[in-house]
Amino acid sequence: MSNTLVNLKNVIQGTVLEPSDSDYDKARMVWNAMIDRKPALIVQCKSTSDVVEAVNYARQSNTPISIRGGGHNVAGHAVCDDGIMIDLSLMRHVEVDIDGKTALVDGGCIWRDVDEATQKYGLATPGGLISDTGVAGLTLSGGIGWLRSRYGLCIDNMISAKVVTASGEVLTASESENANLFWALRGGGGNFGIVTRFEFKLHKVGPKVMFCAPIYPFEAGAEPIRFWRDFMADKNHDVGSTIEFATVPEDDEFPKEAWGKKVYTIYAVYAGDADEGEKLLQPLRELGDMVADFSGHMDYCELQQLYDAIMPAGEYRSYWKCHYLSGLSDEVIDTILEGFSSTPSPNTLSSIWNFGGATADVAADATAFGDRSMPYMFSMDSVWPDKSDDEKNINWTRDFWNRMKAYSDKGRMYLNFPGQGEEGAKLLEDTFGDNYGKLQSIKKKYDPDNLFRFNQNIEPA
Ligand SMILES: Cc1cc2nc3c(=O)[nH]c(=O)nc-3n(C[C@H](O)[C@H](O)[C@H](O)COP(=O)(O)OP(=O)(O)OC[C@H]3O[C@@H](n4cnc5c(N)ncnc54)[C@H](O)[C@@H]3O)c2cc1C
Predict the structure, then answer these.
(1) How far is the CA of 110 from the centre of ligand 1 (A)?
(2) Domain boundary among 87, 105, 137
(3) Is the pTM of this model over 0.90?
(4) Is the CB–ligand 1 distance for residue 144 below 6 Å?
(5) Model pLDDT for residues 164-182, shown as the tens digit of each residue
(6) Which ligand 1 atom lies nearest to the CA of residue 193?
(7) Residue 398 burial (CB count, 10 A)
(8) DSSP H helical segments within 233-365, as ranges?
(9) pLDDT in tens, 97-137
(10) Is the distance from the beta carbon of residue 348 to the nearest atom of ligand 1 less than 6 Å?
(11) Which of 48, 53, 200, 268 keeps 20 to 30 A from 241, CA to CA?
(12) Cα 281-282-285 angle, rounded to 5 deg
């Protein structure tokens, strides 16, 4: 084995790190500070051929692989104990075809790379809400961001992918080449191979978009949320919107008397003409006394980076869970308000996300992601600084999640916010529904020995 390791080190352009190397500890760190895993090797790749060499080495030495894109997976799937972590974070090139409105995006890119490269030409593709999240992990399980209402999930904008499979083959997956693999990559996560390059559709966006962000005190209660629900009913094709529950930080941007108090913000983004969006969203800013209102016309790139600072990598311990909701009755709203009122950590957020619009225009069997009919998602993003508070915060999240189960859309969950995937295969069966069997068959074809298993794992049929 060590002889082959010497070969691997010699043949790749990137770097192989072992536990004794000085950069090893930094390289194994991921976004969630709770994750402390120690791979046998970290292969920092610089090209597709580096990835092929690393996969071949892992397969021949019978060592499982974890794949690191942006390292933001809250369950920490990017890093494994004793296996080989294939790290793509040095592969971050983006190439824009202005006339064709497409972008080639390397498998280690973060969303900031894509937004900054495409906005130079007034273009964008739907990404996540925080700019240092990885394109690959976020996209392969769906990808939900502000542009979802107009342009769908990230996977709906994927045109093709270059994939290194478990056998070390390099394949292109698209509607016309390896179509089953392409179908599986659109929602099936990192189960089928390592994507070293994505091709995305681009749309005309910005540079200015309308960002709506009135912050209401928790005491405003259910009324503004009910208003939002009814107001949004005919706007899901135009507006990406999220109600976020939070605790006001001790920050001069907020009035001092609000520090430490619970609030909710009605976020809404209109990515067409900003003046038009301002008029359209004005009613959301007139629902009573506000703690603050950060609404305004904003550069799209600025919007995409606005919340990076509150979610810094490696600083907080985290446990995130969610439900797709089948509706937002008054009872659901009351349960959410009551549940969030007891959060043990002031860093924790919870959000109601609207769906519908372009997200729902795609048939359940068109991509592995499955049924798009859920009207909302509710996410519980528990975040806290101290190890001694782990149990308290995880238990609170699980209790809240259990209470919200009664309102779940067929027991399904967004697989990028799955806690630690405690529900196992049942979670995947419920979430993928009728698509699960096909996913297992495709897994068997491309990864029969389950080399890629540190993920929401689909076992080969
Ligand atoms: C602060 C923060 C904000 C977030 N915001 C959003 C949001 O707005 N919208 C949303 O939808 N999600 C969001 N998420 C969730 C996010 O989508 C997932 O955590 C996702 O896994 C992150 O992708 P990554 O590449 O950074 O993760 P990593 O931890 O690097 O990878 C996670 C998994 O993705 C797979 N993977 C990664 N790279 C590749 C590759 N090149 N080829 C094949 N498989 C690969 C592997 O299975 C890997 O285990 C957020 C997460 C955080 C922490």
Answers:
(1) 10
(2) 87
(3) yes
(4) yes
(5) 999 999 999 999 999 999 9
(6) 43
(7) 16
(8) 274-281, 300-305, 330-340
(9) 999 999 999 999 999 999 999 999 999 999 999 999 999 99
(10) no
(11) 200
(12) 105
